[in-house]
Amino acid sequence: xxxxxxxxxxxxxxxxxxxxxxxxxxxxxxxxxxxxxxxxxxxxxxxxxxxxxxxxxxxxxxxxxxxxxxxxxxxxxxxxxxxxxxxxxxxxxxxxxxxxxxxxxxxxxxxxxxxxxxxxxxxxxxxxxxxxxxxxxxxxxxxxxxxxxxxxxxxxxxxxxxxxxxxx
Length: 168
Known about the structure:
- The chain is of the alpha+beta class.
- The protein has two domains: 3-78, CATH 2.40.50.140; 86-166, no CATH class.
- The chain is 21% helix and 35% strand.
- It has a five-stranded mixed β-barrel.
- The longest helix is centred in the middle third of the chain and has 13 residues, at 83-95.
- The model has no long low-confidence stretch (mean pLDDT 91).
């Protein structure tokens, strides 16, 4: 059975999938994080391609059969193009569970300037209640995405963790 849905979404990331298709990571208002396939999105004549760029807030039409297929998209607005916003969207891509909508997280993402520390707080990793997961220090500078812990500067360099979020 094929179902068709309309919702708003923030484009988190886009990756090549085959010769002309793309895998698009979205955080939607209705479904939370989903991964959709955009057929022929990498072709020069694709009308979807520009709308499915990271940092776009879009109205989207998706069809679900076995997986999500992106049928139509229209850019509503663009989030700020800076390193902080890209890092915040990467946190959502890496940490948010698939298919579980969270209206608090949606509110942060759909706002004018999503903040990574706010996103960590909504996802249950509030810095106010944290200490370094390695030594217990209160001087936090990094969130280690693979380990799901905060880290002080000294422990971060010892950890060698490839994926981290730098705190303000």
